[in-house]
Design a protein that fits this description.
Shape: globular
Number of strands: 12
Largest sheet: 7 strands, mixed
Order of helices and strands: HHHEHEEEEEEEHEEEE
Strand order of the largest sheet: 3-2-1-6-9-11-12
Radius of gyration: 16 Å
Structural class: alpha/beta
């Protein structure tokens, strides 16, 4: 990772490959341990501790685990919204009612499997009512710029929030090694407000408005 941010910095595609390669070497024990640590750290974040509604997602594969956090938020009375991927890569939303309420859904001709809410769909604009939004990602740099997976779904979410004048806290859950010096930035990219890793929380600014 030492080359990140140096002259000739890698483009997003090659950086994604590098980061995914590291994730794919994690063991089941690694994933369990980091999931519990992430939940504990995330709940130290005032943005989540005081939120009434949190838009989140269910981690899959080697992503930093989110289920422990989702269950704890729900147990505290927080309304947790989860995404459902639409055919145009936009996101609809439904309420998380516990792990038994999740449906395993295959997308992209069966290549990608996600866990989505099985209940009522609330529409893509439901996210604008969230007090905090958990964004998946592969890295965040020291400016708070996020490197996503490249599908564009969360770019749409962020654009929708901006159009609605909504200012939720934007939080990314990552592994410790994924907070890097710099990720490639495009004109439409916006910084997040905080990153949570198993070892702690780092803030980059406060929501405005």
């Amino acid at each position: 990772m030492s080359h990140i941010g140096r002259p000739g910095e890698p483009d997003k595609r090659s950086l994604r490959r590098e980061l995914l390669s590291v994730r794919n070497r994690l063991t089941a024990d690694d994933l369990r341990e980091t999931s519990a640590a992430l939940a504990g750290r995330a709940l130290e974040l005032p943005d989540l501790a005081r939120a009434g509604t949190v838009a989140a997602y269910v981690s899959v594969g080697s992503e930093p685990g989110t289920l422990a956090l989702l269950d704890t938020l729900r147990a505290r009375g927080v309304r947790v919204l989860l995404p459902a991927l639409l055919t145009d890569n936009d996101l609809d939303w439904g309420v998380y009612e516990g792990e038994s309420s999740l449906a395993r859904v295959r997308h992209g001709g069966g290549r990608m499997e996600l866990f989505e809410p099985s209940g009522e769909r609330l529409g893509p604009d439901a996210v604008t009512g969230a007090d905090a939004v958990l964004l998946p990602g592969l890295a965040v740099d020291t400016r708070g710029m996020r490197l996503g997976r490249g599908g564009g779904s969360y770019d749409r979410v962020l654009a929708r929030l901006e159009r609605a004048g909504a200012r939720p806290s934007l939080v990314v859950l990552l592994y410790d090694t994924e907070v890097v010096e710099r990720v490639p930035q495009e004109a439409h990219d916006r910084p997040v407000h905080a990153v949570v890793t198993p070892s702690g929380v780092r803030r980059f600014g406060e929501p405005t408005g």
